[in-house]
Amino acid sequence: MNAPRPGWLPRFEEKIDKPENLDECWIWTGALDDSKYGKFRLPTGSVSGAHIISWELANERQVPAGWHVDHLCRVRQCVNPDHLEPVPASENTDRGTSFSAKNSRKTHCPRGHEYTDENIRWHNNRRECITCIRARDKERRDAKRQERVDNFGFEIE
Ligand SMILES: [Zn+2]
Ligand SMILES: [Zn+2]
Asked: How far is the CA of 138 from the centre of ligand 2 (A)?
């Protein structure tokens, strides 16, 4: 835990009502979003879930793009990292059978990757190109990582 602390950290921490017993919920006293989760504006202007920031600071790691941070304690305003657990967003990978004939005739994705058994994922009865999905995920991850570096002043993964 020797990473440099970002300058906004005191502003973040002063909004946390830490209990005497640190095993209990740490209640966020700052702004809440519509779903009653704590939110915090980072220096680049983006707003993040307070619980997400808290988990990332404690673990010095970024929550993977597309993952949620679950509250094990069910207290949405809680930002105690020990009560938080990142989980992958549930994926709909049902293999549909009623895709259209037009769709089934295509042999390549719009970007020209071949539709092989290994390169297809079914989503809502439509084929998706796994190569494209991976590329999109990577772009999203890279963008998010860079944003985190801009905000935190250091790589947290
Ligand atoms: Zn809690
Ligand atoms: Zn593709």
From this structure: 14
